[in-house]
């Protein structure tokens, strides 16, 4: 196994581009839609993209495990401690409505550590990528997180879990944090692809992201981009994020503390405005 994960990242980039091309080609064509929940849907393209990605990665790295949004977890063979974490189409609701924001997200985890990640936006041909120790790149160019040091100058992004209509607690359904951040930040965007929104923080396109309803495949690849771009990643308490823990704050190094305070204000009832 290579220690630099160059070969793995190279393959992830090729496969993300190939899956992205498939999604782009079919964007705007009518899709078979199945509902997993009231809002949570899956199109034929989620499945086709996932099949393509897993097929290509399995051929390149036989024995590796997979953890993908539509098919769930599949352990690797033998002693393998390598797992590819895949969102074949992040932004499915957008895709089904021809709203042009979606991505393909592919991460590699080795012995519990995220070591490589690729997030691809096929409509703009933007590739956000990183591997452990190699820095973060956007379309092959090295990039870092932004230098913005105040929330009032920060462009933030967030998202809402699919339980937003059934979860009554505003701290859990994100309406509480959203109301606070939108008053103190320069602006808050909610574009519908968490993988893209998080990856943008790592390359300095946006300054911070938070969400409390994430799944591992929404965040894994983009977390590598943020970490390698010099950013900070925690849960809402400031502890190291857990892929299964649903929560993530991803920021440049300078606004993390302020974001933690705004999130904590809902719990402690502190005024932030
Ligand atoms: C969703 C998107 C959305 C986020 C949700 C995710 P999907 O993923 O990333 O931005 O707010 O939490 O579930 O279902 O489009 O792959
Ligand atoms: Ca997703």
UniProtKB/TrEMBL annotation:
Record-level Gene Ontology MF annotations: inositol monophosphate 1-phosphatase activity; metal ion binding
Top-level taxon: Bacteria
Co-factor requirement: Mg(2+)
Gene3D superfamilies: 3.40.190.80, Fructose-1,6-Bisphosphatase, subunit A, domain 1
EC primary class: hydrolase
InterPro entries named in the record: IMPase (IPR033942), Inositol_monoP_metal-BS (IPR020583), Inositol_monophosphatase-like (IPR000760), Inositol_monophosphatase_CS (IPR020550)
EC number(s) stated in the UniProt entry for this protein: 3.1.3.25
Keywords in alphabetical order: Hydrolase, Magnesium, Metal-binding
UniProt keyword annotation of Hydrolase present: yes
Residues given in the record as Mg(2+) 2 binding sites: 90
Residue sites binding Mg(2+) 1 per the record: 69, 87, 89, 218
Catalytic activity, reaction form: a myo-inositol phosphate + H2O = myo-inositol + phosphate
A biological process from GO: inositol metabolic process
Family: Belongs to the inositol monophosphatase superfamily.
Name of the protein in question: Inositol-1-monophosphatase
Phylogenetic classification of the source organism: Bacteria, Candidatus Eiseniibacteriota
